[in-house]
Amino acid sequence: MPELPEVETLIRSLSPKLKGLEISGFKILYRRIIRNKTLSLLHRLTGKKIVSLHRRGKMVLIDCEGGLSLVFHLKMTGQLIFYSKGQPLDKHVHFVLFFKGQSKELCFRDVRKFGFIFCGRTSDIDSSDELKELGPEPLEVDFPAFRKLFQGRTARLKSLLLNQSFLAGIGNIYSDEILFKAKVHPLTSAACLGDSDLKLLWKAMRSVLKRAIRYRGSSIRDFMDAEGQKGNYQNRHQVYGRESCSCFLCGTSIERLRLGGRSSFFCPRCQRIRC
Asked: What is the predicted pLDDT for the residue at 250?
């Protein structure tokens, strides 16, 4: 699933191309990806210009004139990609957005059909069912607020970082990379971390996510930006997907464990479990 760095990369590739364009219409090819019960708000987008694009957690938000916003969640295999007008659409394209006077169309493509689209009033988006439970943004939360998030928490760190109501946007890839950089075992309880440990974790989180954005995210399977370009950070993973490979720091073999149905990769020497 695309995580914060991939979605941020997508936003940055889309924004200069979409801002200021006037929406001339849309086409739904698979109705179940639309979360709205009626299409009235979607129809109101016609004739409206795109004002801005931004990210919330793992979602793409497109704000338009008239106080309306389009929300896209890519889930496992979703893609937002440009097609030339008249270009045949493959069977995995489920939604198309048309623009006045433009030769390209923005298509939402999703092989596994887990993604979704939602149209709402911009002023109400943060309180919508799709966004209201999201935690703070990892790159916006300062250390005092980050430390406060851990008060009374006893969950294992890997599970906690994956919890979108705790922090929004971190998934399986970057939780492993963050924990490795902070030298913390994924099964360590949050209750075992002191202030110095939390400071290291906060710094590791910011460092890993910023670096991943700089290298345009990780293309493990399906991720591409709006122009079909893949990311490069997968070539710089320290532990994720590297089971049995040597740790770049100490040479110990990277191990994998299963936690909550997901694989976690770690170095047993660099990331010793504390409690």
From this structure: 98
Total domains present in the chain:
2
Q: Which of 35, 262, 268, 269 is catalytic?
A: 262
Q: Tell me the helices (H) and strands (E) count for the chain, helix number first.
A: 6, 10
- Domain shared by 41 and 152, yes or no: no
* CA-to-CA separations, 172 to 10, 74, 177, 204, 260, in angstroms, rounded: 19, 15, 9, 15, 11
Among 127, 152, 185, identify where a domain stops.
127
For residue 195, what are the domain limits? 143-266
Domain shared by 87 and 148, yes or no: no
- Considering 58, 109, 181, 242, which one is annotated as catalytic? 58
Mark which of 94, 127, 160 sits at the end of a domain: 127
Does the annotation mark 2 as catalytic?
yes
Within a domain: residue 273? no
Query: Residue 179: its pLDDT value, please?
Result: 98
Residue 274 in domain: no
Report CA torsion sign: 48, 52, 53, 54: negative
Cα Rg for the chain, rounded, in angstroms? 20
User: Is 25 within the bounds of a domain?
Assistant: yes
Q: In which residue are the tokens 């939390």 written?
A: 198
How remote is the C-alpha of 146 from its chain's centroid? 19
Q: What is the pTM of this model?
A: 0.96
Report the C-alpha gap between 169 and 154 in whole angstroms.
21
pLDDT in tens, 58-103: 999 999 999 999 999 999 999 999 999 989 999 999 999 999 999 9
One domain for residues 105 and 217: no
Q: Is 58 a catalytic residue?
A: yes
